[in-house]
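Our platform keeps sequence and structure together, in a single record for each protein. Such a record has a labelled line for the sequence and another for the backbone structure tokens. This encoding replaces a full spatial description with a residue-level series of whole-number codes. Below, we set out a record of this kind in full and without editing:
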Amino acid sequence: NLNIAIAGIPKTIDNDIDYIDRSFGFYSAIEAAQASIRTALVEARCTLPNGVGVVKIMGRSAGFLAAFAALRSGDVDAV
């Protein structure tokens, strides 16, 4: 007969859980994705004047990681 409270904290980098605004690891995953986008941009500009860099960012079922990383980087032409 102990008075115990239990709290469950969802942890996912996809940020696709209802009822919460953001999940743990989401922004650090976006920062890592932005680093990959910057690297692809540098490689694309160094080899050819109109080079193309392709970065594949995968999530579980929703494309929140790809969408947020593309919007925050400002260097992406298509998602």
Q: What stands out?
A: The first helix runs from residue 26 to 47.
